[in-house]
């Protein structure tokens, strides 16, 4: 891992391989290790960049609220610091997808393609936003455990929970190890994120939409609608996977990514 000071915060970033750049953006409250299998699968052909967003993993924490736009600004500055000026492919899962949408909104010219994995274009309902803010307060008081207890049962397909408890346990460790301030800041940021549904039709770069068929957080029905609204999108549904498709079905997700990247 490299550590770079970006927009006043120390960001840890994995930078592997050579070739056209692909950046992998993790979900909430996770870190770059959720992409280990995809880094492994892509690094022989591509330069794979997998950062820990501010407040997560080994990166520093800054600010009581971090908007999805701020995360996107960090990534744009990170690309500058890594001297990546060619257009790249940005791939985000869930919160990483919210960040990818904001990156597209501000830096579309820097994108060769977009991968939206188990994510949502809609903003939070007022009730969901209020619930998030309440949870952020709880995490600041009690640590990540209450959030982990709420989220973990929803992240995986039943098949993963039964056959691969080690995947669930490893993710639980990452979540429990995340800085409470980082969690709260991103939760506040997600609660105020804009609805990008009306803009989906303007995303003109090649786009791959990936969803686990058993995803209950960003369900297939919702992701099919996203794929239909984006002019050059292709949808891949991953059987036997939930919200954490890249961890649950790493070979299938990596194959979909490779095929998409090869065609660009
Ligand atoms: C994630 O996986 O990043 C979260 O489910 C995003 C969210 O809470 O909306």
CATH fold-level label: Rossmann fold
- Strand tally: 8
- Low-pLDDT sequence parts: none
Please tally the helical runs, counting DSSP H or I stretches of 4 or more residues.
Answer: 11
- Global geometry: globular
CATH top level class name:
Alpha Beta
Q: Which percent range describes the beta-strand content?
A: 15-25%
Number of domains: 1
Biggest sheet, in brief?
8 strands, mixed
**Distance linking N and C termini:** 28 Å
Structural class: alpha/beta
Q: Which sequence of SSEs, written as H and E, runs from N to C? A: EEEHEHEHEHHHHHEHEHH
CATH architecture: 3-Layer(aba) Sandwich
How do the strands line up in the largest sheet? 1-2-4-3-5-6-7-8
Radius of gyration: 17 Å
Q: Hetero groups bound?
A: D-malate
- CATH superfamily, by name, is Alpha/Beta hydrolase fold, catalytic domain
Give the averaged pLDDT, no decimals. Answer: 98
Descriptive keywords:
11 helices; binds D-malate; 8 strands; eight-stranded mixed sheet; Rossmann fold; globular; 264 residues; alpha/beta
Question: If you had to describe this structure to a student in words, what would you say it looks like?
Answer:
The protein has eleven helices and eight strands. By secondary structure, the protein is an alpha/beta fold. The chain has one domain (2-262): Rossmann fold (3-Layer(aba) Sandwich). Strand 3 (21-25), helix 1 (36-42) and strand 4 (47-51) form a beta-alpha-beta unit. Helix 4 packs antiparallel against helix 8.
């Amino acid at each position: 891992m490299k550590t770079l000071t970006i927009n006043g915060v120390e960001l840890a970033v994995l930078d592997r391989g050579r070739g056209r750049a692909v950046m992998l953006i993790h979900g909430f409250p996770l870190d770059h290790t959720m992409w280990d299998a995809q880094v492994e699968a892509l690094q022989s052909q591509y330069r794979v960049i997998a950062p820990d967003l501010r407040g997560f993993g080994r990166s520093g924490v800054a600010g009581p609220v971090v908007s999805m736009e701020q995360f996107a600004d960090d990534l744009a500055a990170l690309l500058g610091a890594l001297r990546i000026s060619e257009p790249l492919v940005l791939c985000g899962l869930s919160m990483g997808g919210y960040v990818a949408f904001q990156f597209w909104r501000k830096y579309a010219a820097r994108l060769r393609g977009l991968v939206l994995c188990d994510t949502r274009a809609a903003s939070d309902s007022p009730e969901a936003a209020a619930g998030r803010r309440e949870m952020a307060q709880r995490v600041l008081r009690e640590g990540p455990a209450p959030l982990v207890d709420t989220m973990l049962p929803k992240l995986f397909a039943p098949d993963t929970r039964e056959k691969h408890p080690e995947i669930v346990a490893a993710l639980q460790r990452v979540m429990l190890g995340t800085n409470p301030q980082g969690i709260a800041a991103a939760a506040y940021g997600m609660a105020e994120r804009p609805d990008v549904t009306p803009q989906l039709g303007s995303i003109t770069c090649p786009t791959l939409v990936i969803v686990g068929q058993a995803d209950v957080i960003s369900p297939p029905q919702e992701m099919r609608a996203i794929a239909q609204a984006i002019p050059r999108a292709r949808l891949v549904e991953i059987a036997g996977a939930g919200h954490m498709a890249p961890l649950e079905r790493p070979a299938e997700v990596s194959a979909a990514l490779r095929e998409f990247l090869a065609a660009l």
